[in-house]
Amino acid sequence: MLYFRGCTAREKLTGIQDATEKLLNLARVDYHILDDEKCCGSVLLRTGFEDEAQKQIDKNTEILKGEQILTSCAGCFKTLNQDYEGLDVIHISQLLDSLIKEGKLNFSRQDLKVTYHDSCHLGRHLNVFDEPRDVIRSVADLVEMDNVREDSICCGAGGGVKSAYPEIADEMAKIRINQAKDTECEILLTPCPFCKLNLENDDLEVLDLTEFLVKYGDAYGSQ
User: Fold this and answer.
1) What is residue 47's predicted lDDT score, i.e. its pLDDT?
2) Distance, CA of 122 to CA of 77 (rounded, Å)
3) Distance between CA 1 and CA 64 in Å, rounded?
4) Residue 26: which residues within 8 A CB-CB, separation 6 or more?
5) Looking at residue 69, what is its pLDDT?
6) Angstrom distance (rounded) from CA 138 to CA 93
């Protein structure tokens, strides 16, 4: 399996990569990474630079074809699934769900109340709703916000909004954070590094799903 880390987890939020690799090692998953990993092209595509994106896609396809690809980033997951051709791609939440159900990865149950933000790319675009929730329930109590699953609202970071219109991105994040606070949760979880980056705030702990499992789940592999 090739672990495709994605730009955000690789360069900005390296704790996500660290947590992911720790879980993969605990579950004894045979994986490797690319030392010279390049961007999947998602940002170029979402901001209208299709020609440049296609060049990136063509280069990456030569490297990625024939691999089973694991992604941390919901944006990479969507791009590699829908904008590339012939790739075998799985998101970390899907793999974790399988590993838990197969008994290859286990967690200690905690007295925690958490809520979950459905990222646009993983949720509405690719209909991955149940797997991350099943993973969360293996550790903590899940309390849902008002807008979830197909009705989830964007965190504000996608489509180049964070770069071009940061004030809009901030306002959208505040709406989502307030929805999370209304659940009286202790932690807000997300499956997307972009979402984590935009939702981070001073009042509520925001974690990637993998970071949460490592920090609170007392993870251990099969016995």
Assistant:
1) 79
2) 7
3) 11
4) 105, 219, 220, 221
5) 98
6) 13
Dump pLDDT digits (tens) for 124-139: 999 999 999 999 999 9
Residue 16 token pair: 């996500």
CA distance 150 to 152: 6
Fold assignment, 108-221: Rossmann fold (3.40.50)
CA–CA dist 157, 204 (Å, integer): 18
Helix (H, G, I), strand (E, B) or coil at 50: helix
Q: Residue for token digits 């030392």? A: 35
**CA–CA separation, 66 and 168 (whole Å):** 40
Question: What is the dihedral sign for C-alpha 63, 65, 71, 75?
Answer: positive
Q: Rounded to whole angstroms, how far apart are CA atoms 70 and 72?
A: 7
pTM: 0.92
Q: Are strands 68-71 and 105-106 parallel, antiparallel or unpaired?
A: unpaired
Say what the pLDDT of residue 49 is: 84
Neighbours of 180 (CB within 10 A): 25
pLDDT-flagged residues of the chain (< 70): 222-223
> How does strand 220-221 pair with strand 105-106?
antiparallel
Question: Residue 135 is encoded by which pair of tokens?
Answer: 């993973």
Residue 211 has a pLDDT of 96
3-state secondary structure of 214: helix
Report the C-alpha dihedral over residues 63, 65, 68, 72, rounded to 10 degrees: 50
